[in-house]
C-alpha cells in the first residue's frame, strides 16, 4: 500500500519542520535562544563554531520561521520566533527518555551514523 498524494501533502509541513530541526547545530542554537536573544558572535563563542556555520544555520531556522531577528545598528539579535518550539523540544526529550537507547541505537538515524552521512 502506498501513501496517497493528499496524505503526503498534509504531512509535508511537519516533515519540513522536523527536517529543519534535524541538525545538532540548529538544535544547539535553539537551546541557546531559549535562554534569550543572542548575536551571531555570542552563539559563536557559546557553541565554539565558525561565524559562517552559525550564520548558515540561523538562515535555515529563519527560513523555517523558527527564529526572528532584529537589527540594531550593524548588529542583529536573534530570538525564537515561536515559544511553542520549546514545548516541542521538551516533548521530544520526554519521548527520548521513555524509549531509552532505542532512538540512539536506530540503525538508520541513530548516533552511530558518521557525521554528514545521510540516508
Spell the H/E element sequence. Answer: HHHHEEH
Sketch the major β-sheet. Answer: 2 strands, antiparallel
Number of strands: 2
Mean pLDDT value: 88
- Which stretches are low in confidence, meaning pLDDT under 50 for 5 or more residues running? none
Distance between the termini: 22 Å
Can you walk me through this structure?
There is one protein chain. Strand 1 and strand 2 form a beta hairpin. This protein is mainly alpha-helical and about 120 residues long. About 55% of the residues lie in helices and about 10% in strands. The chain has a two-stranded antiparallel sheet with strand order 1-2. The protein starts with a helix and ends in a 20-residue tail after the last helix. It is built from five helices and two strands. The chain has helices spanning about 5-20, 25-35, 40-45, 50-65, 85-100, and strands at about 65-70, 75-80. The longest helix has 17 residues, at about 5-20. The chain has a domain at about 15-80: Arc Repressor Mutant, subunit A (Orthogonal Bundle), CATH 1.10.10.
Task: Summarize, please.
55% of the residues lie in helices and 10% in strands. It has a domain at 13-81: Arc Repressor Mutant, subunit A (Orthogonal Bundle).
List keywords for this structure.
119 residues, mainly alpha, Arc Repressor Mutant, subunit A, two-stranded antiparallel sheet, globular
